[in-house]
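Students often ask why we bother encoding 3D structure as a string. The short answer is that it lets us treat folding as translation between two languages. Here is a chain of 52 residues written in the first language.
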Amino acid sequence: MVPGPASAVDETFTSWVSKGVHVVEEPHDEVFGRTFVITDPDGNLIRVAPVD
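And here it is in the second language, the structure alphabet:
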């Protein structure tokens, strides 16, 4: 969960992509807010979304 506006989720995405994470879903808007999905080194899915 990322605190702040939707742009904070985009900033997290940009930062993590520059570090080489594997992207499953690009940032997009859902009913609960801005979100994206990456995988960790073991292949587990990690969804990043705003604090509810």
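Translate back mentally: The mean pLDDT is 96. Keep this in mind for the problem set.
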